[in-house]
Design goal:
The protein has 4 helices and 3 strands. The chain is α+β, with helices and mostly antiparallel strands.
């Protein structure tokens, strides 16, 4: 991680490497949170082929289209200081859907394809 990528904790807004509380701990956590949608058409196709092939997963994989089962639609990088990681629930990241937490990361075009 480069110096310019370092930013405040996404939960408490304190400096991630400076919020030690005990004066000793200088570590922090970097999480990549990705939100995905299931591709119901691809799942139904795979389950249907498995049933048609007598329950054989290997045959169903061989004949199924090679589409993605899950498609990402958001990806965010979140920095969390050590005290927040140990004292606060991670559900605090998702309390408000309108609030943008962390830094948005790009999603590759081939991952978006169904």
């Amino acid at each position: 991680m480069k110096f310019e990528d370092l930013r405040a904790c996404d939960l408490c807004k304190s400096p991630v490497a400076g919020n030690t509380r005990d004066g000793k701990t200088i570590d922090f956590y970097k999480l990549v949170v990705e939100r995905n949608l299931l591709n119901a058409r691809a799942i139904n196709e795979h389950v249907g082929l498995t049933l048609m092939m007598g329950g054989s997963e290997q045959l169903a994989r061989a004949f199924a289209s090679q589409g993605n089962i899950a498609v990402p639609f958001t990806r965010r990088e979140v920095l969390i200081c050590f005290p927040c990681m140990t004292e606060r629930p991670l559900s605090a990241l998702f309390e408000d859907d309108d609030k943008t937490v962390g830094k948005e990361l790009p999603i590759k075009e081939e991952e978006r394809r169904v």
